[in-house]
Amino acid sequence: MHEVVVVGGKPAERHLCESCAREIGLVAGAPAPVAEILQKIASGQAPGAGPAAPADTACPVCGTTFTEFKQSGRLGCPECYKAMESQLAPILDRAHQGAVHHIGKVPRRLMREAGEEGRSTEREVALAAAEARAEQIRRLRDDLERAIKTEAYERAAELRDRLRQLHRGAGATGGAP
Amino acid sequence: MSEPDHAKDAGGLGPDGLPAGLFGAGTEWLRADGPEGDVVLSSRVRLARNLAGQRFVHKASESDLRLVLDVCRGAIERAGLGERAVWVDLHETGGMGRSLLLERHLISSHLAKGKLGPKRSSEDWPRAVAVGLPGERAGVMVNEEDHLRLQVIRSGLDLADAWRQAGEIDDLVEAEVDYAFSPRLGYLTACPTNVGTGIRFSVMLHLPALRMAGDIDKVKHAAADMSLAVRGFYGEGSEASGDFYQISNQTTLGKSEQQLLEELGERILPEVIDYERQSRRVLLEKRRWQIEDAAYRAFGVLRHARLLGTEESMKLLSVVRLGIAMGLIDQGSTGDVHALMLAVQPAHLQRAAGREMTQDERRVERARLVRTRLAGG
Ligand SMILES: [Zn+2]
Ligand SMILES: [Zn+2]
Prior knowledge:
The complex is a heterodimer of chains A (177) and B (377).
Chain A: H1 18-23, H2 33-42, H3 66-72, H4 80-83, H5 85-95, H6 108-113, H7 120-149, H8 153-173
Helix pairs in contact in A: 7-8
Chain B: E1 5-6, E2 40-49, H1 62-79, E3 84-89, H2 95-103, H3 109-113, E4 128-133, E5 138-142, E6 148-155, H4 159-174, E7 181-182, E8 186-187, E9 199-206, H5 208-212, H6 216-225, E10 228-231, E11 244-249, H7 257-286, H8 288-304, H9 310-325, H10 334-343, H11 346-353, H12 359-374
Parallel strand pairs in B: 1-3
Antiparallel strand pairs in B: 2-6, 2-9, 3-4, 4-5, 5-6, 7-8, 9-11, 10-11
Helix pairs in contact in B: 1-4, 2-11, 8-9, 9-10, 11-12
Bound molecules: zinc ion (2 copies).
One zinc ion is lined by residues 145, 191, 194 of chain B.
């Protein structure tokens, strides 16, 4: 079965990311793998076939729902991958030829923090530390948004500085080479 | 590693709002001396990366985007994209400046003029591009679909060297900021079709003989079967202008960068290149006079026309390029043709003329410019 991915589309009605959008079936007139995938899941033909799509879950961090994702083709934040794991599975399966696990480059700091041998327990620890930093960023970010909304500008400036430091200082905790 | 110039202190801005030094030393993809240069214009590697804990661009607030820009700028400046780098704040750059960057393949059309989403139609969301000089061989788009889109380009077929430098820049940036990464899914991207390595290898090919032989669809279908994308000269959604096609990987999960590199660079592309060369040989054997005639006619039109459109120019330049590559035309080089391919684009044409022009005025000016250059002027 052929899926000709791109055949010189007109740049008239431009979406944010045309190829990705087309790939998952969001541009009118283009092959519609996502719609197709969802249909196949409903009729039980595709891998990951199960009951019809579950109720619309929202990402606890950014509030993006699966319905929104189907419309925009984009997730809202890294946490969306966890929040929509089951709905995304067939889409990932289709987009990546059945692959379910990353193979390839890993951030250097993660490797370094995990030690030269990259023992799995040490990697777990490094990951947990990275996750803790991300969680701190998310919390500060929400505080900052609230400060901006309530026009607490001094507080906002302070939070912004801390966020900057948190992003930039991340490297320092891993021990510079 | 020198500190990059800020647009505002890089010896002033040109009338297009871009750093004056940006266009000095030419651009890598215009060089015509890379491996397999008869068929391959350029090789490009792009890495998609996002900051941990931050919302993806289209869901981010103005304040989020400013913070990302701020944090990434420092990391990119220290990563060193070349002998020096320029930083361009695109939300402060006019439409003409953005079009120039787009025509040079330094930014995507999304970054040049795209919309952030249904709720956001502003052209002014905080975003930037950093470009390594000289040669524009490396660049980073900030706040495109992903927070970071690192790009490295090489003349001809040389994905390995492009990947080597992209990997180095990536390491240096990552030494300063946490990327959104999951052990299972790899680098997390706004679009799930990029998740995993976040890498896209792409190669710009000139395939006129395959098109003339009616075999382009075979290439497209074979590419689709191997989960590769075929795009036009200006990327996603663009037409295959003048027989130039970009072929790139689509799969980013479950295959390592090295695996993808070998698949595309060592197995698939050599076959496509060989296929095009065979078609050229067949043309030479069976339709020698037709092809020589077509090449010289194209040259003649470019040399004497008084009105030229962009698309028409690209088609004619494509045929001339084929004539030069096949040794049928003994005037000019593929490098000259590449330079014209950029010079005929609307923003570059207007920049060279030093004024904004209507479409009709551009057609006159384009013909004049091409004529003068081909006359050896
Ligand atoms: Zn995309
Ligand atoms: Zn989310």
